[in-house]
């Protein structure tokens, strides 16, 4: 049994079942035994590989798109370049190499990394030690000082706690994690009901036992970013796997050593994520006064941003095996069966602004 599993069981025995959000939050961020606090999740030895770790082209293209966004918002004299949940810092290192092509961008930008894990902060500092900007670390987005914003978040929102509700005869009741007769962790339902106003139309006819998810923590951050952009200007790119419109379905998943795992099996040792509801993120940002550009799939976004051209120039004059690896990376990042379709890109902007490869707001 993991150390954290014993701690969670003791907590439930003492004070009752946990919501899915409480469980996720403990598993991922417990100060002593949480997944991000203690583990090395990324790369071949970890549990999963994210897009920036697949290829430098990912961070470079995000950098190029953000340079376009910087032009579109009128090249502010000073702005905060922010990344939420930077992992190993790879995306930002590749981003800044691309941004160095525009010295004015680097002169105006102040880098803020929002990261709760002290261990990952150290790794990010190491990755960025030769970068042209020195990071300021923040615990939460709200701690980033006011001012225009250029913000990137890759696979950040999927790690934030979600709530789940189960369709019962009594309506949508919150899903819990409690203890069964033999003292093992098990799912159950509590008495809290989902308010009628939060039930999407698409879920109204869902059969008994269906699961519906809400993401108040993610929506609150999207709202704060939208509010900052509405009052100070800026752009934000949210890249994650998720869905365009909400529907009933259980997307909570655990990944352990590159394989799906039972969600309750290895608390603190497996990554826990849920698919992101992009419609809700866009609505939260708009509610705060910002605009949201039409959602793109990651494949479309990267191809329209010049992925193939970048792959071509990166491969020129390189040995055959390297060219093959670059082709594999293109397939992995943009292929519809790989990350191309499931992953989406949402751009939040100040009103009246658009920039390639996004269509204008309609
Ligand atoms: N963007 C990186 C890493 C994604 S993993 C990549 O694409 O490779 C999620 C990241 O978000 C990790 O750096 C994790 O420590 C951080 N994180 C998770 N929950 C967080 C929270 N509540 N506040 C701040 N950072 C968080």
From TrEMBL:
Fetch the SUPFAM superfamilies from UniProt: S-adenosyl-L-methionine-dependent methyltransferases
Has keyword tRNA processing? Answer: no
- Keywords tagged on the record: Methyltransferase, Transferase
Q: Which Pfam families match?
A: Methyltransf_28
Answer whether the UniProt record assigns the keyword Methyltransferase to this protein: yes
List the Gene Ontology MF annotations in alphabetical order: methyltransferase activity
Name one process (GO BP) from the record.
methylation
Q: Which PANTHER family does the record match to this protein? A: PROTEIN ARGININE METHYLTRANSFERASE NDUFAF7, MITOCHONDRIAL (PTHR12049:SF7)
What is the name of this protein? SAM-dependent methyltransferase, MidA family
